[in-house]
């Protein structure tokens, strides 16, 4: 990867700004002055303005129920330790839902996981007050027609017990599961997200975080 693109992708400067800094001798690669157009390889140490390249942080976080993740909510106050390092949530999980969120300071990840071209699915455990009909999974899997969103993409669903459903969504419209089940006349008592792509919530408890493993990061 060319050095100006590398610096841009790291979120440090624009490509044009990178070119200016390289020309001014303010970028070092493995202790040597960088040259225009040079290639950067894995393991190279890049220093900009005598400051080491940005360290990316990737975390799995169990968002408790009642916590709002949008900027106007109380989310920032509970992740102060990480927020100071530029960490933010990838996507959202509504206030009355709980479960897995990915936190990072890597802006590229947002588009990769939540963008319109994303193939990252998400899995939820949903509890409802009423007894579930055996026909609910088939309705989800054929692509439900809703009043709110129109035709939705097919979603996988499996009944765990009379009041519990496991749902896997490929798309993530706002309050999608709540809308789908509401239009089927079910009352949701709890939604818990347990997986994003290959990332599992595992043994995390509400409010806890853990660093993603190198393998998990590579599969995002």
Automatic annotation (TrEMBL):
Q: Which GO terms describe its biological process?
A: enzyme-directed rRNA pseudouridine synthesis
Which keywords belong to this entry?
A: Isomerase, RNA-binding
Q: Which Gene3D superfamilies match?
A: Alpha-L RNA-binding motif, Pseudouridine synthase I, catalytic domain, N-terminal subdomain, RNA-binding S4 domain
Domain named RNA-binding S4: residues: 1-63
Drop me one GO molecular function for this one.
RNA binding
Per its UniProt entry, which superkingdom is the organism in? Bacteria
Key word Ribosomal protein present in the record? no
Q: Does the keyword RNA-binding apply?
A: yes
Q: Which InterPro entries match?
A: PsdUridine_s_RsuA/RluB/E/F_cat, PsdUridine_synth_cat_dom_sf, PsdUridine_synth_RsuA/RluA, PsdUridine_synth_RsuA/RluB_CS, RsuA_PseudoU_synthase, S4_RNA-bd, S4_RNA-bd_sf, TruA/RsuA/RluB/E/F_N
Q: Which family does it belong to?
A: Belongs to the pseudouridine synthase RsuA family.
Q: What is this protein called?
A: RNA-binding S4 domain-containing protein
Q: What is the lineage of its organism?
A: Bacteria, Candidatus Harrisoniibacteriota
